[in-house]
């Protein structure tokens, strides 16, 4: 097995790794996703040729010391769902940071880690990163986080989740955003970031718990490549108006907008929209005005909405009254 280059144990009923693992010096790919493994060997750093480590949905909460010695590591995937969470906020668990992990200067994917002060300050050393996912982000991290992210010019995917739903994300000072293709922000935003309209390569935008007092639509409606837009408790106003924009948008999700009473779609807006999801918007009692303008709409999903809204539907649609 010393010549083994790839080991895929995904979904296997394994809870402990064999001792011989650290002798597989040629190993480049290790997949432990969906296993019951709780820890990696202390000598894990001996796998000096490892390029990909995937512990997604395993039981591993912390990586062993010495990870920084794996200088060929490119992909570090540690995303875990929190199946025992008692709210709809902390549904994602990050991995605890190990010392000097920021010395992995060729790392491209870092998904997903707890935001800790030392990591935030040194994140900018990892200039080859294309994908970053951080949870447990605090307001006090804001300045250092922006400074570090501004040094990473190849970033295509950025996901930031605050420590709790009332903790603001301080990200106004981000400037290196031109390369970002997918952006997910979970946390309160006190204002619409001024750099939203610079996201010319953005294809997906997810805003969760933003609780914005101002409408973000004006800042993003002209983004030329935006295909998927998800608003989840993102806006506190009573009215959403889509006017003359979102020319390539194909999927729109409007979820848990507690104060929303009206959605307006003007002629020419969202011309390419194919799927519209409205969920848990109890104050919305009528279908979006101008929905007939969505001539390419193929799916309409109404989930946990008022009876009045459902009764206002005519024609085909996917309706869930529960």
Return the string of H and E elements.
EEEEEEEHEHEEEHEEEEEEHE
Shape: elongated
Distance between the termini: 53 Å
Rg (CA only):
22 Å
Strand order of the largest sheet: 1-2-3-4-7-8-9-10-11-12-14-16-17-18
Task: Outline the biggest β-sheet.
Answer: 14 strands, parallel
In terms of structural class, how would the helical and strand content be classed?
mainly beta
Low-confidence stretches: 315-322
Number of strands: 18
Work out the helix count: 4
Overall pLDDT: 92
Measured as a percent range, the helix fraction is under 10%
Q: What amount of the residues lies in strands?
A: 15-25%
Could you describe the 3D structure shown?
The protein has 322 residues and is mainly beta. The protein has a domain at 229-322. 7% of the residues lie in helices and 24% in strands. It contains 4 helices and 18 strands. The strands form 3 sheets. The chain has a 14-stranded parallel sheet with strand order 1-2-3-4-7-8-9-10-11-12-14-16-17-18, with no helix packed on it. A two-stranded antiparallel sheet has the order 5-6. Strands 13-15 form a two-stranded parallel sheet. Helix 2 (142-149) links the parallel strand 8 and strand 9 (157-162). The N and C termini lie far apart (53 Å). This is NBS-LRR disease resistance protein.
